[in-house]
Amino acid sequence: MNFFKRTTHIKAAFLGLFSLLLSSVASAGSHPNLVITIDDVKLMRQAIKGEGQFATAYNDLKAQVDEQIKQPITVPVPKDGGGGYTHERHKKNYQVMYNAGIIYQLSEDDKYADYVRDMLLEYAALYPTLDVHPKRKVKSQNPGKLFWQSLNEAMWLVYTIQAYDLIYDSLSAAQVKVIEDDLIRPVSLFTSEGQPSTFNKVHNHGTWATAGVGMAGYVLDEPEWVEKSLYDLDKSGKGGFIKQLEMLFSPQGYYNEGPYYQRFALLPFVTFAKAIENNEPQRNIFEYRDGVLLKAIDTTIQLSYNGLFFPINDAIKSKGIDTIELVHGVTAAYGLTNDTGYLDIAKKQNQTILSGDGLKVAQALDNQMQTPYEFRSVAFGDGNDGKQGALVVMRTQVGGDQAVLFKPAAQGLGHGHFDKLTWQFYDRGNEIVSDYGAARFLNVEAKFGGRYLPENETYAKHTVAHNTVVVDETSHFNANVKVGNNNHPTLNYFTTNEFGTVANGSISSAYKNVELERTLALINLPELDSTITLDIFNANAKTKHQFDLPLHYKGQLIDTSFDLKANASQLSALGSNNGYQHLWLKAQATPQNGLAKVTWLNDNGRFYTQTSLVSGDEEFLFTQIGANDPHFNLRNENGFIRRVEDQKQHTFVSILEPHGEYNPSKEYTLEAVSRVSAANYIEQGNLLLVHLIIKNKAYLVAINKAHSKASNTFTFKNKSFTLNDRLGVYALKNN
Question: Global pTM?
Answer without folding.
Answer: 0.92
